[in-house]
Amino acid sequence: MLRIAVPNKGSLSEPAAEMLREAGYRQRRDGRELVLPDPDNDVEFFFLRPRDIAVYVGAGTVDVGITGRDLMLDSESAATEHLPLGFARSTFRFASTAGELDEVQQVAGKRIATSYPVLVAGFLWERGVVPAGVVRLDGAVESAIQLGVADVIADVVETGTTLRAAGLEVFGEPILRSEAVLVRRSDVDAPAGLDVLTRRLQGVLTAREYVLMDYDVPLSLVDKAVAITPGLESPTVSPLHNREWAAVRAMVRRDQTNRVMDALYDVGARAILVTSIHACRL
Ligand SMILES: Nc1ncnc2c1ncn2[C@@H]1O[C@H](COP(=O)(O)OP(=O)(O)OP(=O)(O)O)[C@@H](O)[C@H]1O
Ligand SMILES: O=P(O)(O)OC[C@H]1O[C@H](OP(=O)(O)OP(=O)(O)O)[C@H](O)[C@@H]1O
Ligand SMILES: [Mg+2]
């Protein structure tokens, strides 16, 4: 039975549960459950703090887990990234009082507050920058400068709203781009059952990333239209009752939907329909 660690709280928790549900697994109804067996799918879920998940996976007490790339790297555990999951995207960046600093070298001799001290120390060491010290905080890191415990912070930035509200501004290159990832232990062979979990999660990712596009097009224009919608392998072309026309079906990237519909219409396709993919296995 594959043992899977899932975030119990925080911004990773709900999207992780939703993804697993879409992949056909049981998920807990009560936010306090710590363990949830799913015998039909031969897996067992353990709900743990996202920061601890890479530690458990690295120690081998659970087989795989969902956590953030930033949390995994900061843990220094024997866990490795197996599959990026496309949600909880963020960047990890330096920030200080607006207008004060503009490059990483200026962090030398300054006090840094962060929840990710390993990531920060590694990044600065690689660049030969020696700070005055690194203060480890649990959260609300944006307040550390105003409250006088640090001169610079390194924190998760998504929209930048929290930084702006604190009168701070990012500077220097991003330390890391993060997202939710499925992690496994780095020093052993892949556990039994990981291939099925991986295919199911990849199916969810594809279903989210692509739509199905159907359209009718005059036979003489099929090649032109198909060049716009090549699909993943090759689009399906079917005959229509009107022998001068064909029906085409292809997968299209969701974020390209309207651009592709415009291009198809321009070459003469009509009755262009777009439907969501509920599930898929490529
Ligand atoms: N605003 C955000 N947007 C996107 N990802 C985020 C955001 N805040 C945190 N994350 C990501 O979530 C993970 C951190 O999860 P964690 O549960 O520890 O923090 P949290 O969501 O801030 O919860 P907590 O309330 O416990 O601080 C990291 O991978 C981080 O990059
Ligand atoms: O760029 P933004 O869209 O504003 O998001 C980034 C903020 O979100 C997270 O904080 P969270 O709300 O989890 O609080 P925390 O600092 O206590 O973890 C993160 O630590 C940043 O502070
Ligand atoms: Mg947080």
TrEMBL record:
<dbReference type="GO" id="GO:0003879">
    <property type="term" value="F:ATP phosphoribosyltransferase activity"/>
</dbReference>
<keyword id="KW-0963">Cytoplasm</keyword>
<dbReference type="InterPro" id="IPR013115">
    <property type="entry name" value="HisG_C"/>
</dbReference>
<feature type="domain" description="ATP phosphoribosyltransferase catalytic">
    <location>
        <begin position="49"/>
        <end position="202"/>
    </location>
</feature>
<dbReference type="GO" id="GO:0000105">
    <property type="term" value="P:L-histidine biosynthetic process"/>
</dbReference>
<dbReference type="InterPro" id="IPR011322">
    <property type="entry name" value="N-reg_PII-like_a/b"/>
</dbReference>
<protein>
    <recommendedName>
        <fullName>ATP phosphoribosyltransferase</fullName>
        <ecNumber>2.4.2.17</ecNumber>
    </recommendedName>
</protein>
<dbReference type="GO" id="GO:0005737">
    <property type="term" value="C:cytoplasm"/>
</dbReference>
<dbReference type="InterPro" id="IPR020621">
    <property type="entry name" value="ATP-PRT_HisG_long"/>
</dbReference>
<keyword id="KW-0028">Amino-acid biosynthesis</keyword>
<keyword id="KW-0547">Nucleotide-binding</keyword>
<dbReference type="InterPro" id="IPR013820">
    <property type="entry name" value="ATP_PRibTrfase_cat"/>
</dbReference>
<dbReference type="InterPro" id="IPR018198">
    <property type="entry name" value="ATP_PRibTrfase_CS"/>
</dbReference>
<dbReference type="InterPro" id="IPR015867">
    <property type="entry name" value="N-reg_PII/ATP_PRibTrfase_C"/>
</dbReference>
<keyword id="KW-0479">Metal-binding</keyword>
<keyword id="KW-0328">Glycosyltransferase</keyword>
<dbReference type="Pfam" id="PF01634">
    <property type="entry name" value="HisG"/>
</dbReference>
<keyword id="KW-0808">Transferase</keyword>
<keyword id="KW-0460">Magnesium</keyword>
<dbReference type="GO" id="GO:0000287">
    <property type="term" value="F:magnesium ion binding"/>
</dbReference>
<keyword id="KW-0067">ATP-binding</keyword>
<feature type="domain" description="Histidine biosynthesis HisG C-terminal">
    <location>
        <begin position="207"/>
        <end position="278"/>
    </location>
</feature>
<dbReference type="Pfam" id="PF08029">
    <property type="entry name" value="HisG_C"/>
</dbReference>
<comment type="function">
    <text>Catalyzes the condensation of ATP and 5-phosphoribose 1-diphosphate to form N'-(5'-phosphoribosyl)-ATP (PR-ATP). Has a crucial role in the pathway because the rate of histidine biosynthesis seems to be controlled primarily by regulation of HisG enzymatic activity.</text>
</comment>
<comment type="similarity">
    <text>Belongs to the ATP phosphoribosyltransferase family. Long subfamily.</text>
</comment>
<dbReference type="InterPro" id="IPR001348">
    <property type="entry name" value="ATP_PRibTrfase_HisG"/>
</dbReference>
<keyword id="KW-0368">Histidine biosynthesis</keyword>
<dbReference type="GO" id="GO:0005524">
    <property type="term" value="F:ATP binding"/>
</dbReference>
<comment type="pathway">
    <text>Amino-acid biosynthesis; L-histidine biosynthesis; L-histidine from 5-phospho-alpha-D-ribose 1-diphosphate: step 1/9.</text>
</comment>
